[in-house]
Description:
The chain has 465 residues and is of the alpha/beta class. Helix content is 33%, strand content 23%. The chain folds into 2 domains: 2-196, Hen1, N-terminal domain (c-terminal autoproteolytic domain of nucleoporin nup98, 2-Layer Sandwich), CATH 3.30.1610; 267-464, Rossmann fold, CATH 3.40.50.150.
Amino acid sequence: MYLTLTTTHRPATDLGFLLHKHPDRVQQFEQSYGTATVFYPEATEERCTAALLLEIDSVRLARTAGRDTPDFSLAQYVNDRSYAASSLLGAALADVFSTARGGRCRSRQELADSAIPLVITIPALPCRGGAGIAVRIFEPLGWQVTAEAIPLDEQYQDWGDSRYVRLTLTGTLRLADALNQLYVLLPVLDEAKHYWQGPDEVDKLLRSGAGWLATHPDRTMITRRYLGRRSALTRAALARLAELDDDREETLDPEIEEETAEPEERRRPLNEQRHEAMLAVLRDLGVTSVIDCGCGSGQFLTKLIKERSLTRIAGMDVSARALELARRRLRLDRLSEREAGRIELFQGALTYTDERLSGYDAAVLMEVIEHLDPPRLGALERVVFGDARPGAVLISTPNSEYNPHYQGLSGMRHPDHRFEWTQAEFAAWARRVAGDHGYSVTLSGIGEPDAELGAPTQLAVFRRG
């Protein structure tokens, strides 16, 4: 199995820092099913290519495979799976480039956080459903996709095409996002895995799909294929995506929408309850301008734009991809000039002073703060409460005490969460911030509360002065 990853970012050899693999060395990594080798066919200032070669030991693979794996018995020795990209390559990629998948690079962290030009090539990739499925899955993620069907036999074209494609992806993305997408989508296209799948696969999917899976138009198909069409795991994954992320529509499709052992309020989406609660506070405050900080793909903005009392609305997010989805959702290109003049979208980060954040009656940070590393909260406090200083700030965040209500949840509610606070911890933080910056604060909950554990979501409303 073979995969190459090329960049023309200058200097291109910085790819070695991002992958944590030196371009001048050939490195080998033993796997339970073979040997993974990383080397660089080219490494110049203008262009650098890293190659991952996975050589399968068929005997070792057969000895470690269980009876419920896709190619048990003699097929392990004679089939073609060992020679084409599959979940084996995805697993090797995850192991060899684990630090790069996490987006960590001490010597080049700013570059690791940035989108760079990338070209990914896989010569032979199983693709159930044909080349069109590869285009359908990768294009919404910002890739230009070239998927060429491989004929069964080059000499006998009338035999038709095999189920394999030559895949080339070209785009400008964060390297960590590209690697995580490959880790999830290689077995999705193959629609098979080389190992038994348990409940921990849901956590793996959500962790690797953070930031892109929830907004993918085919997230249901991706989830079902990744989890081997195991209905219980698929329901659990889609339910968590529906509750945790900004896009609710069509997450649970009719084929698998069944009664599950989830909290009662799950049947009325918690995300909708957050939107309603925020809108109610904004109406009570009588604001005419509001900025949604961390707007994501713009679901809450679609509610704000319907409020005729709001004459100025803004959405800000660190993700350019999310903002593009928000533009499509809002249909900005179809709005009248007057309506389009009410709303503005821009890219930015809440940890850096930005004049565009100033001048609003209210700022909304809905499920945002928990995505920041705790040491960076001080920067957010300074930017939002010290520099922008809106008349009111509305902040919601998960109540970690409520988490036992979510069956099958291990750890935090979302793989990208850096922390989740108890009610006492959130209250202490909110009161300190209010006192430091001249605000008063009111605390409440969103969602059906538990008598002992409180509501699933915590809400703090800060008023200046």
